[in-house]
Amino acid sequence: MKRVLIVKVTSLGDIVQALPVVADIKRAFPGVQVDWAVDEAFAEVAQWCKGIDRVLFAPLRRFKKARRWADFKSIAESVSALRAHRYDYIIDIHGVYKSAIIAFLARSSRRIGYQSQDLGERGAAFAYSGRFGPRPQCNAWHGMRISAGEALGYEVEGPPVYNLRLPEPAKPPFRGENAPVAALFHATSKDDKKWPLTHWAVVGRELAQRGFRVVLPWGSEGERVEAEQIAAQVPGSIVLSKMSVTEIAQMIDACALVVGTDTGFVHLAHALQKRTVMIFVATSPSHCGVEAPFRSMSVGDGFSVPPISAVLDAIDYVHSGPQAVAAQHRSAAA
């Protein structure tokens, strides 16, 4: 085996959680070249992974929104880069039309994708010469690892390895800040995934009382307004300036704690091995959650708004470590 192409086009959290497939393949086949096809909007995320040899990208999402000639030209030009090498295998772990088209255009006789019932768009099946087995009974992230292993004939071993290396920031994100920093990612792509602003304010105040400096990132104007509403109720908190994806990643890497809803940047915090609490309101924690002993924890059932107490308990779990949790259990039993 000389060269493999992984196709996972969007979005940020899904791409981050798919990266351990690269380490799995390189462990199973030492010396293999692993390329990755991704939307231009998330190309830098794939480029942070030390195991990826070549990142192929095109402005697919931007072209879909704006239909600009320049973006169409960039997509057309990207096809030649896609076809520059022949692949032993192409592994499509996305399973929609755009990923299937990429798999079909790339040069290989072995293009593996999901079974029809597991595809995001069933029409994507046209591109594949082989299929993964039925979707395994586990979370989506481990499922991608298993599917890739089935396609290439190896067993998945050990915890996920993300192998991320961020570029050095031009200046420290929190220069001169002595207190540990906690980032609250209150914003989401969908309103039904939001946790109430009043809840965020309570958690922010509690963290401030514990000695954290609370920071609030945002992406849109509406998110900035909400961040200011939270900050107004949390002493010493800061609404950050608008930042690029790389700048947010560097900010996360400088934090002691990240608390947020089911969003890409909170998945990135988990992958960067930060102490992470992810709040689930309308999506499935068993399917999309993060878990690592005394470091990352998912809160909520995906059908209702988790209480503040559950989030604070999760913060205690990830930040205080096993000794504090054991003490809590002893106290409860007394």
Automatic annotation (TrEMBL):
Pathway: Bacterial outer membrane biogenesis; LPS core biosynthesis. Its main location: membrane. The keyword ATP-binding does not apply. It comes from Paraburkholderia rhynchosiae. Belongs to the glycosyltransferase 9 family. It is found in: Cell inner membrane. It is an enzyme of class 2 (transferase). GO terms for molecular function: ADP-heptose-lipopolysaccharide heptosyltransferase activity. This is Lipopolysaccharide heptosyltransferase 1. Keywords: Cell inner membrane, Cell membrane, Glycosyltransferase, Lipopolysaccharide biosynthesis, Membrane, Transferase. InterPro entries: Glyco_trans_9, LipoPS_heptosylTferase-I, LPS_LOS_Heptosyltrfase. It is a peripheral membrane protein.
